[in-house]
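Quick question: what would this complex look like in 3D?
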Amino acid sequence: MTKKLYSLIALLAVASLVLAACAPAAGDAGSAGDAGDAGTSGDAGSAGDAAFEGTSVASESCDYGGKILSIEAVDALTVVFNLCKPDPAFLAKIAFTPFGIQPSEWIAETGGAGELLEHPIGTGPYMVQEWDRGNQIVFTRFDDYWGEAGAAATVTLRWLTEGAARLQELQAGTADFITNLAPDDYATVIGSDDLVFIPQDNPNVLYLAMTNTFAPFDNQLVRQAIAMGIDRQRIVDNFYPEGSEVADYFTPCSIPNGCEGDSWYEFDPEAARALLAEAGYPDGFETSIYYRDVFRAYLPEPPLVAQELQAQLAANLGITAAVVPMESGEFIAASTDGQLDGFYLLGWGADYPHVTNFLDFHFGSGNPQFGDPFAEIYGPLEEASSIADLATAAPLYAEANNAIRDLVPMVPIAHGGVAHAALATLDGAYYPPFGANEFYRMSPTTDDPDYVDMVYVQNAEPISLYCADETDGESLRPCQQVVETLLDYATDSGDTVPELATSCTSNEDSTVWTCSLRSGVLFHDGSAFDANDVVASFAAGLDASSPYHVGNTGGFDYFSYLWDGLMNVPAE
Amino acid sequence: MATRTEAISPETINPSQRSRSLGSLTIRRLFKQRNAIVGLTILTILLLIAVFSPQIAPYDPELVLIGIEDVGKRESPCIHLLGCPEDQPQHIMGIDGNFRDQFSRVIYGTRVSLFIGFSTIGLAVIIGSLIGAVSGYLGGWADNVIMRFMDVILAFPSFLLAIAIITVLGRGLQNALYAIAVVNIPVFARLMRASVLSLKEQEFVAASRALGASPFRLLFARILPNAAPTLIVQATLSIASAILEAAALSFLGLGAQPPTPEWGTMLGSERNQVFTSPHLVFFPGIAIMITVLAFNLLGDGIRDALDPRLAQTTKS
């Protein structure tokens, strides 16, 4: 009797174990829209287990207009991206910080918002210890990082909006690295033995935009007159730091195919005045120059450049323009929606090294920021965006650039030089052309090698740390330290290098990309990284029907415009 | 008999004669006040600078010197007398961030600041005095309604209220002037009402009323002239505050807009350069300080000159 009882208990125990082992497999197999629910990560050793249930996110068809048809986790360490059309910038795009990977469980647990905005969980060399809002963010080293461990045990990220104040912190030794040196401070840093001057070769452009739905900017002759009537060389020479240059094309020439076609108009005030008279404005007109007073690499001193343009428009064209500074968020919203009735000063810094990042976003058929989009521009751009071969696409980009020159939706002014600074005692101080510098590559010299702390000062507080739904560099920088992407950018160029994926290869027509993932990678919460985390992270941003598509604003701008739109958008 | 009646009638007293004697007495007292003399001297100089700005300033304040002179952005002052090489163009307050002569801008800024001070307080005095006079003279529910409304305006910090008004009207010098005038109206309304309440019971007012003077005549010919000294003192002191408020609004980008050479705007646009180019914030700052000081000293002096108790003390 007793023997039978023990046998029964043993049988029940074995049955329980079998059921427990089968439990994950009993979950949802994963489908478009609920990818985050499906698939759980076991320990690192489980990656590649036969029990792995891959998830996916997909659109019913390519009719929604976007580039991605589906993303599938075919096994624990393999993800396949099925594209609707070839994307020559695919590798560069997936290396961009907003496409960082977080655990599917964490995304599900937070519901795609809330804690996710302040405490991202990634696989990066640093993890967020505490965000003291309005003051600082403290990062601690992740000791189980798969790659080279960071030298500093903690990194404190602070922010100061004034360039002079940042430099003071550096000179006082209370900061190891500061971003965005004010142009007037260049000489101070270069002349100091205690500081290191770190120029950044980031392609960017400042432009003077006009919205063609407002008079007199609906007149092409007026726009052409303005294109000829501004002495852009004078602006660059007097208001930009060393390393800056006049923008002869919208896209900087360091980006392949950026400078195909004809160069911009030469400065010719007489011809400009004649054109303006021909357009019916011999004495000019009254308008405004809108701008936001925020330091950007492409516009280091916005009020000065705005006033210089004001002076040039008056002197060269007889145009009376009031200078109107706007609050940053209001300015971005109004300008990108095409609601500003005057000139506005805006720019663009490269997110990834491809011409589509400059031209397709600004001059695409769905962008109203210059008013009604021009088919002469977006036509060739759409055709070129599916061509992987640079030489084959070059004539189309030449056609688009010539149309921009002819139609003048804006006047490209400058490609700004930007520089940062560090203490001479900070080993490995650098700044890459794309993305932010990574904390783990830099090491402050200290008397106490057991405890190294680095203080990094940038020019503004991050908005949130869920960078799938952020666009500002001040947010992307801390995200990049914590959350990693499938690929990364090289420290000295725009080339992509392996990060969470060891390789990504495509089929012949570049419509199917297969990424092999790195094994043995752990998230900061101790869970193992696998292909389902990639699917869940992309699904939260890309799939508008996902319950986790919440974020900070819900805009997921980079998902929307880099992949030509969100999939499964619910019908209104 | 008729001749005698005429001699004692208030109508026969020449008000200008009376005010002239009061005025000359006040001026005599004023010139005994050292503060007032200093304030008046500075103010006279500032007025002369404002009037003769085109003659004093070496450059157009909005002229960008790129391509005209070999100057650098935010260049330090160059004064030949102090050793600056003769071959360099002289700019005694340096060059601003937009390559304009800072001295010329500070000089022209005097015009803008004095205009702001006089126009805003002038408007506030006129409107506030009328409101206060009518309120005090009518009394009753009208007085209650008007004064409670003034209390509501006074309940807000004046600068915040000015910012709120500009938010509604839009930024710009003209709207800043309206905003500053509006926030100053209650001060003058209360002051005038208090004067009217005390003066309307005075015998000379009662005598005029008894002789059949109309309310309008009583208010404007009898009461207002006697309330004027208090208003003048308050107005002089308020001009200083108005100049400061306008500078602060412009500093925040709500008042005068570039390229108008307004001292607050000049301070605001170069505030980040306080360590690298201190001359660009020092000179507009000093200009504001001197102007405000002049009005404060003059206001104190006028108050002392008009105060009979202080006059008695001086005599004894």
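Answer marked as accepted. Chain B touches chain A at residues 62, 64, 66-67, 73-74, 97-99, 171, 253, 257-259, 269, 272-277 (CB under 8 Å).
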